[in-house]
Amino acid sequence: KKGADPRPPSNFTDLISTLPLEEGWAPLRIRKYQGFWIPERVLQGIMDMQQNFKARPDDLFVLSYPKSGTTWLKALTYAIMTRSQYPLDHHPLLRQNPHEFVPIMGITYAKGEASELEAMSSPRILNTHLPYSLLPHAIKSLGCKLIYVCRDPKDVLVSRFHYNNRMRPQAMEPIPFTKAFEMFCEGNCPYGPIWEHVLEYWEESQRRPEKVLFLKYEEMLGDPPRIVKRLAEFMGCPFSPEEEKEGVVEEIIKLCSFDKMKSLEVNKTGKLRPDFVLTNDSFFRKGGAGDWRNHMSPEMARKLDRITEQKFEGSGLTL
Ligand code: A3P
Question: What is the pLDDT of residues 127-153, one digit of tens each?
Answer without folding.
Answer: 999 999 999 999 999 999 999 999 999
